[in-house]
Amino acid sequence: MQGYASIHEVLDDLRPAAEIRDGTLSITDERAFREQKVDRLVYSAVFGDDAVKAACRWVIWEAAQALGALPASIHDYYMAGGRGAWHHRTTPAINVRGLTYDTARAVFRTAMRYDCKQFIFEIARSEIGYTQQRPEEYATSVLAAALREGYRGPVFIQGDHFQISAKSYAKDPQKEIEAVQQLTLEALDAGFYNIDIDSSTLVDLSKPTVFEQQRLNFQHCAELTAFIRQHQPEGVMVSVGGEIGEVGGKNSNVHELRAFMQGYNEVLAGLGSDLVGISKISVQTGTSHGGVVLPDGTIADVKVDFATLAELSKVAREEFGLAGAVQHGASTLPEIAFNRFAEANACEVHLATAFQNLIYDSELFPSELRNEIYAYLAEHHADERKPGMTDAQFYYTTRKRGFGPFKRQMWDLPADVRQGIGAILEERFNLIFDRLNVGGTSALVEQYVTPTKRSKPMPETLRAATMQVS
Predict the structure, then answer these.
(1) Which of 3, 417, 452, 470 has the fewest Cβ atoms within 10 angstroms?
(2) Is 61:458 a contact under the CB 8 Å cutoff?
(3) What's the helix, strand, coil split of the chain in %, to 5?
(4) Which residue from 71, 67, 62, 192 is spatially nearest to 463, judged by alpha carbons?
């Protein structure tokens, strides 16, 4: 794919499918725009120079507004679930680390096939770093995929694990909180209207009571919720999530949930009597991020405590009006396990590593590129190799860090390779959407979610170019 060399080239290529007049983008031939313009626009939005990048991102955002693929909050839908309006449907929250545009296209194709609008795209604070995808780039790639596939409706984009680093917090609490706040502002502006606050890293199990163990967690979660409410776009009630147990640690229990919610609600009320709180709560019930890799590179069987998950979801709904409990780190579980999340009434499950594995392990993925990435990891991330690790274990646990440095090489793979990998991913998404019971949810979601249109200011360099053309 060849990107645009200048803004004038962008403007010339848009015609006759679209035009910019008086600061407004008009789509004059929707089919031509989707099929002939979006691929090049999104490529340039990721890899163009600063002026071209800004212009293409603006065009994609405004086209999404015009064609009805609108960033939205899932808050009202989740709160309806807390009131019993829907149940036994588990939202797939999909972390996309690489081949973002092609992967998102596969997700949208699956969603349209299943008449589904209960799904989320997300990226964590850590992933933003090692995949080299700032929020605006990530949202642009997702929205471009929606445009390319002809999807209309709410597009739920989520900041996953906007996490307070315990290590950084110990050194300078205020600086670390401000770092999370700045990322939140960046994400909100990009169209992330769903934010998962993760202050569970501050839970201190050495404290004598569960309430005291959770104190820093619920205090900072409430403060960050208030910050989000202060800065969320007009007309948008951002869906905010909290977390009571660090993934990979001990399993959560109802005592922790109740202690967290009691403290959280008290602190939030003290910050403003009309502040709206979280809509869901993330818990730990047995998984770990990425799964546990064995010496031969295969993944160990993981047992999820579905009884605990069901109990936590029940308490979250019935006592606190939340949509339910959220499960992390589940994408590498056996296929048969996915049915049980909906049975347990978990409102959301976070999925990432299995999709990464499908990309890297595909026979279509060039072995030369894979070897180049592995050589890079051996050179630049050797400090992550733990004693006794086999090569298979080391590369499995570190190859997520290849997505950023080799982002362009992946986007530049031949079209048939990317399409083939997209088809493999789509097959997996089909299974997940089916097992999580989110098919046929379009009308239900739209009953509660009305996305807010929001135009963005045109970049000055693009404005100047359009004036020269006119």
Answers:
(1) 470
(2) no
(3) 55, 10, 35
(4) 62
CB of 171 closer than 8 Å to CB of 188: no
The answer as to whether 296 is a domain residue is yes
Per-residue pLDDT reduced to its tens digit, 242-291: 999 764 457 889 999 999 999 999 999 999 999 999 999 999 886 544 45
- Domain shared by 83 and 131, yes or no: yes
Question: What does DSSP assign to residue 346?
Answer: -
Total domains in the chain come to: 2
- pLDDT at position 303, please? 67
Residue 49 lies in a domain: yes
Residue 139 and residue 236 in one domain: yes
pLDDT for 315 equals: 97
Q: Which residues pair with 160 in a beta bridge?
A: 124
Widest distance between CA atoms in the chain: 71
> Mind listing the pLDDT tens digit for each residue in 98-153?
999 999 999 999 999 999 999 999 999 999 999 999 999 999 999 999 999 999 99
pLDDT in tens, 4-56: 999 999 999 999 999 999 899 999 999 999 999 999 999 999 999 999 999 99
Give long-range contacts, CB 8 A cutoff, 24+ apart: 336-342.
337/304, 338/431, 338/432, 338/435, 338/436, 339/435, 340/304, 340/306, 341/90, 341/306, 341/309, 341/435, 341/436, 342/88, 342/89, 342/90, 342/435, 342/436, 342/437
Would residue 395 count as lying in a domain? no
Tell me how far CA of residue 270 lies from CA of 30, 171, 226, 274, in angstroms: 50, 27, 10, 10
For residue 328, the model assigns a pLDDT of: 80
Tell me the pTM: 0.95
What gap in Å lies between CA 128 and CA 189, rounded to an integer? 15
